[in-house]
Design a protein that fits this description.
TIM Barrel; five-stranded mixed beta sheet; about 400 residues; single chain; globular; hydrolase; Polysacc_deacetylase_ArnD; metal-binding; five-stranded parallel beta sheet; alpha/beta
Length: about 400
């Protein structure tokens, strides 16, 4: 489908070099998933040292590129200038691009999208190229960039978990033990929330029973610098709104995409800072994961965060109480077509067609290639079913 339409042709660039790994798959991919489709790549001619990979992708309306640079310590001082040169050369090689995004990493510590954060990032829509060029030359400000302030200004790094959503799971663990009475009360809340719908003691599985004509569209693991411009563009064209469950570390490095979400009427929610399973953590550490993300998202959007989704849907009575103490409702889902398992477009289409219903909550991932393949059809199908896709906050509760 969509990826088949993205064959690249350029005198200055060849796009048939397969990427060794898909940026964005590092932290969310769970064991047992099928390999993702290989993304087209752009090769600059002549080659430029420090360019790790340049991925190119489209959504049927616009095409964008994401350049990953890995620089040696000697090159760090020239990171802005190098980024500016790469962006200019990518635009020269592909005049059809609507946006070029760039992530600059330290070569010795680069470990993919889930590893140590970049040295700097930037989003450069075509209309903003002159502003970006001025910033890289030190001649003015640019609002669609982020420069790493150093580890002393960031939360202590935790390695992200590879978590597969198999369904919301209430567990207990030695790090967060629950008394039998506490577990029983939590299970009662879970059962009530599943049966009646609506917000039951800070738990939300679906809209209030009897809801008609509306369902929540949600995306986990946002934002990603290649997929976000394409996803936001499709939602804007369709008029649909969504709730983005944001990984804090991703929002840290790409704050301008979080601002875009809020500005376009979407809802920004909490998916922990490092995308880690919470039950193995101590309660203070689990609370930190939520609090760090809340504080960051509020600083970016100026709005309070209302909703939280635990990675993998794996939670304990303690984590639910921690979320409530921060004013968060814990949100699960009714419809998970498994886009990050890469089952194939036809399988995804069959799954969401069979599960979409009014009052439900749809779970997708913002950096899954097959999600992007089928999203236009999904949005069209929802309209045909007279189901308006909206934010979690837009559901009757």
């Amino acid at each position: 489908m969509l990826l088949a339409l993205l064959a690249l042709s350029s005198v200055a660039a060849s796009a048939q070099t397969p990427a060794t790994a898909l940026p964005g798959q590092v932290q969310p991919v769970a064991p047992g998933t099928r390999p993702a489709p290989t993304l087209p790549t752009l090769t600059l001619t002549p080659a430029m040292p420090g360019v790790h990979v340049i991925n190119v992708l489209g959504n049927g309306f616009i095409t964008v590129a994401h350049a990953i640079l890995t620089l040696t310590p000697e090159q760090h001082a020239q990171a802005r200038e190098i980024a500016g040169t790469v962006v200019a050369r990518v635009y020269a090689a592909r005049p059809d691009l609507a946006e070029v995004d760039v992530s600059v990493y330290d070569a010795s510590s680069y470990a993919g999208f889930g590893g140590p954060l970049p040295l700097l990032t930037a989003s450069v829509p075509r209309a903003r190229t002159m502003d970006f060029e001025a910033w890289t030359a030190g001649r003015g400000p640019y609002d669609r960039q982020w420069v790493n302030p150093g580890p002393q200004a960031l939360p202590t790094y935790r390695e992200p978990d590879k978590v597969r959503e198999t369904g919301p799971t209430l567990t207990t663990s030695p790090s967060m033990p629950a008394r039998p009475a506490q577990r029983s009360r939590t299970q009662l809340r879970v059962t009530s929330a599943q049966i009646t719908g609506g917000d039951v003691g800070g738990l939300l599985y679906r809209a209030r029973r009897g809801t008609d004509g509306v369902a929540a569209l949600t995306f986990d693991d946002a934002p990603h610098p290649l997929f976000e411009p394409l996803l936001l563009d499709l939602l804007r064209r369709s008029g649909a709104h969504a709730t983005f469950f944001v990984i804090g570390r991703n929002a840290q490095a790409y704050p301008y995409f979080v601002r875009d979400m809020a500005a376009q009427g979407h809802e920004v929610a909490n998916h922990t800072y490092h995308h880690v399973r919470l039950p193995p953590l101590s309660l203070p550490d689990a609370t930190d994961e939520l609090r760090w993300t809340d504080d960051l998202l509020r600083s970016i959007t100026g709005k309070p965060v209302r909703y939280f989704r635990p990675p993998g849907g794996d939670y304990t009575p303690g984590t639910l109480n921690a979320a409530r103490s921060l004013g968060l409702t814990t949100v699960f889902w009714t419809d998970d077509p498994g886009d990050f398992q890469n089952p194939g477009d036809s399988t995804l289409e069959a799954r969401y067609r069979s599960k979409l219903h009014a009052g439900g909550i749809v779970l997708l991932h913002d950096n899954a290639p097959e999600m992007l393949d089928v999203l236009r059809d999904f949005l069209r199908y929802a309209r045909q079913r007279d189901v308006t896709l909206t934010t979690v906050g837009g559901l009757p509760k």
